[in-house]
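Crash report, auto-generated. Payload:
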Amino acid sequence: MKLDRLIAKHHSLGRSEAHRLIAARQVRVDGAVCMDNQQPVDRFMRVELGTEVIQPAERALYFMLHKPTGVVSATVDAEYQTVVDLIDDPDKQSLHIAGRLDRASTGLLLLTNDGRWSKQFMNAESKVPKVYVVETLEPIPQEAVAAFAQGFYFATEDITTLPATLEILAEKRARITLHEGRHHQIKRMLGRVGCLVSSLYRESIGSLALPENLAPGKWRALTESERLRCLS
Ligand code: URA
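Recovered output after restart:
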């Protein structure tokens, strides 16, 4: 929302009265006088009119978690421990998961309450790479490399998967780069080339890799530069 609209909505002041107050240096955004009627304001910004707080700032949360196996990527679950259960933060109820991992899968998981940020790397159009290391029960056939690059048709969703990179690291081990995140996508793709997945680990999202010193089950807030690295 733009600043003048937020002010105008308040006490139904009207747009021209909002402009007058903004021009009279009565409005502060995040503690600083703002004279731009069109300043975009989101729910994470504090807006004051004179001495009155029109909108308190919500805390924006950006967390990474090293997801251990056996924990579900959900906010609540009747049966299993959830990834949110592992987080100790007073505002954790506002979190959503930016890119789920299956219960058995491990690795980098991002949680946030900022939907505008998570959409930027979750959208298939954004082409942000997500990198996984998988182990399989069967040897991975060489033909799988071309098949992954070409894409697989999934009738359930009526879609063809985007070109993905499969790098065979050992007979039963590969690194896979996806630019989208469909339900059980890697298991289903590997299933098409005759391989069952025995373990699946997400190494990175964009250019943010899971730090080596973050043990399974541990979490921490992202730094500003880490937050930006998820987007490219
Ligand atoms: N693909 C899968 O099949 N499972 C995951 O957890 C992530 C990607």
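Post-recovery validation: The longest helix spans residues 15-23.
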